[in-house]
Amino acid sequence: MADFFSKLKKGLDKGTAIVSAKSNTLIESNKLKSEINAAKKFKKETLLEIGKVVYEDGKAGTFTIESVEELITRASESEVKVADLEAKIIKIQEEEKEKMADIKTAAAPVDVDFEEVVDDVTSEVDDIVGDVTDVAEDAVDDAKEVAEDLADDAQEAAEDTVDNISDVVSSALNEGKDLF
Question: Cα–Cα distance between 65 and 90 in angstroms, integer?
Answer without folding.
Answer: 37
